[in-house]
Amino acid sequence: MTARQQVQLSPVQVPKASDVLAEDMRERILRGEFPEGTALPTERDLVTQTNMSRATVREALRILEVQGLVRIKTGRSGGAFVQHPDGESIASSVDLLIRGRQIRLAALLETREAIEPACAQLAAKYRTEADLDTLERANESLSDKSGSLAAFLQANVDWHVGVAVASHNELLTGFMLALSRAIYTSTDNQGFINTDVRLTTAKAHRSITTAIRNSDADAAVRRMKRHVHSYAEAVVKFEERTKIDLPEG
Amino acid sequence: MTARQQVQLSPVQVPKASDVLAEDMRERILRGEFPEGTALPTERDLVTQTNMSRATVREALRILEVQGLVRIKTGRSGGAFVQHPDGESIASSVDLLIRGRQIRLAALLETREAIEPACAQLAAKYRTEADLDTLERANESLSDKSGSLAAFLQANVDWHVGVAVASHNELLTGFMLALSRAIYTSTDNQGFINTDVRLTTAKAHRSITTAIRNSDADAAVRRMKRHVHSYAEAVVKFEERTKIDLPEG
DNA sequence: TGTTAGATTGGGTATGACCGAATAAACGCT
DNA sequence: AGCGTTTATTCGGTCATACCCAATCTAACA
Hints:
Mean pLDDT of chain A: 89
Number of strands of chain A: 2
Low-confidence stretches of chain A: 1-6
Order of helices and strands of chain A: HHHEEHHHHHHH
Shape of chain A: elongated
Oligomer: homodimer
Helix content of chain A: 55-70%
Distance between the termini of chain A: 79 Å
Number of helices of chain A: 10
Strand content of chain A: under 5%
């Protein structure tokens, strides 16, 4: 018996079949191989094509669905339809991070101070008439003194998101979408918004909107920076006051 | 037989069982009900607890895995372990958006110009000694003239990500992580990096690092703004030149 | 020609089985 | 008793099959 050569093998890692399938389809979708709306083969077809079980195929499709790459419809002529990720997909993952890591409101505001002036700058550069309409509508709703708190907050989010959309930068838009929503929910049950805050906010929004309309990037940046900063300061001050009022927390 | 009253029902929507289960567990995890590392029940246990099939339970777990909320280990005493999302999860979804939407390099650079100066500002404010060490190490690697192109690009990414980490803002960190990587891969096969660019980059990085070390936020912002802007300009110019050189591109 | 009842398609779920890897428990050697 | 080695058990990963129901298409019908 000849001495058997000791072949060295690096620890072979067996990826999950569903991951392999998902990655394959993902790369094809991202490569742009299928235009948006294209129907992928049915689950049963994929089973015969890949020699995998239906459970495996389904898991792969589920992965793509969670990643926002396909939309699944039920019923006859249903199936998985190709989709390209949009701001929502980023927003949802940012949301998970914020909630999972219990990011403090102060950190959210700090992040907004970092990003939103840049959004305003780009918005002043790239805004279309449609963008301006959106901002104006949000401003009107914001100035409606008879509106509820929820309506005010929603209009606030709409305006901020509107500025991001006007930047015509999908990355920033998705990011601001999540950020605005998170700030919304954190501020909601704080009893922080009063008439004074409402007026100040409406005024600031209008002045920034004007700068964006005039394509005055410098003014847009300056005013936005001032707006989000003073808002952040007010929130922090309010939090401190609340802390004193309710020392037993 | 009495006339039967026509009861009106709004279209009832039946959510998928796996989604319901996933959402339930997701909320519990995000609420912080389970500390990081906690082992969720085994698939078979979840089957008995929920009266769902194993396939359904598995799909729910798969969803959570994709969302970065659990990590799944195989083998005895394996299972799903609670995890909180980190920058990586944001980075991957940003990556999907960039690739799926074919975001142009110019837009990536524009986005970086928008947020990285803010990262530098926060870094100057919050940086620790460990952060500075990381930046220094990246700078050394960056200045190594004998290093390969790949090594240079990697060191470049490391430094930029290092600045984001030094901001101690997880949202910005995740965002910059994805952005830096995307810019890396877009720049990689462009033949754009030459000795001159290397020297300029190394110099700029060192000067910004110094400002961050000195907690000089204003200087950090100014220099970072200048750095990423001139880099973006250089890339755009290079792209135009290439377009002219290869008109049939 | 519209309307409706049935057939068809395709995803959603449930069972039950088997495999292989990771690991804990049992074992045997020193 | 201590320690390396085998054995057993546990769990996720995969497969095969069957059935249900909603969405939709089709065709009979008024």
